[in-house]
Amino acid sequence: MDYKKYSLENLENWLHDVLSCGEASPHEIYSVIRKVVKDEYDYHKEKSQQCFGLLELLSGHRPVKLECDKDDPSPECKGAWNDFWEEVDEDRSREYNLREAEYYDKRVELDAITKEVREACGYEWTPEVSKKKWVLPVEECKDVDTDKTDYFITFPNDLLEAAKLKEGDEVNWVDNGDGSFKIVKVLQPLGPDEC
User: Fold this and answer.
1) 3-state SS assignment for residue 38
2) Domain housing 143
3) Tell me, what DSSP letter sits at residue 151?
């Protein structure tokens, strides 16, 4: 089984489901997606910090602080207990302090950028999506046999592409109350073969 394909299909189905039910607002959907991404980020950030700390210890870039007492017979604890009374290796200590200072400098820089964006745009900032408008002429077609006139609009290709429409798609016309209309694609529920 291709797990990636399976997961993406489930995500697509859940999005169709939540959009089709009509009860969840766009903000609620956005908030749920954002929360999941933030939870994943926080989880992996914490695990990454733990692994980084362990890697620093294993690489010898950070002094090992064993929890030993003077009566522990293991060679590691005896060595750690003896090292406690000896002078610290200043070169290793200096290197560790420089790396730690570099980490905190970068962290302060990133925190400042994040704060600036939040103050300028708000915590839940999302860039505005530019909206393009089209003025479409209403055309007419007269049936010579019945003398009946039909009216239609031809959608240009860039409108079809922007609205993600293709021939045969069903749309709803929403009156904006100012003489203009918004076109909303009608989403068809998935059939049993598509699940």
Assistant:
1) helix
2) 128-195
3) E
Q: Could you give the CA distance from residue 61 to residue 92 in angstroms, rounded to a whole number?
A: 7
Reading the block at residue 169, the tokens are: 């798609």
Q: Which of 45-54, 60-69, 133-142 has the lowest mean pLDDT?
A: 60-69
116, 155: one domain? no
Quick one: 99 and 136 in the same domain?
no
Provide the pLDDT for residue 127.
Answer: 54
Helix (H) or strand (E) holding 34: helix 26-59
Q: Could you tell me the pLDDT band of residue 195, with boundaries at 50, 70 and 90?
A: very low
Q: Which residue has better confidence, 83 or 18? A: 18
H and E: helices and strands count for the chain: 5, 4
Cα angle at 166 between 143 and 172, to 5 degrees?
75
In sequence order, which residues have a C-beta less than 8 Å from that of residue 72 and are 6 or more positions away?
Answer: 78, 81
Structural domains of the chain, count: 2
Q: What percent of the chain has pLDDT over 70?
A: 73
Question: Are 75 and 153 found together in one domain?
Answer: no
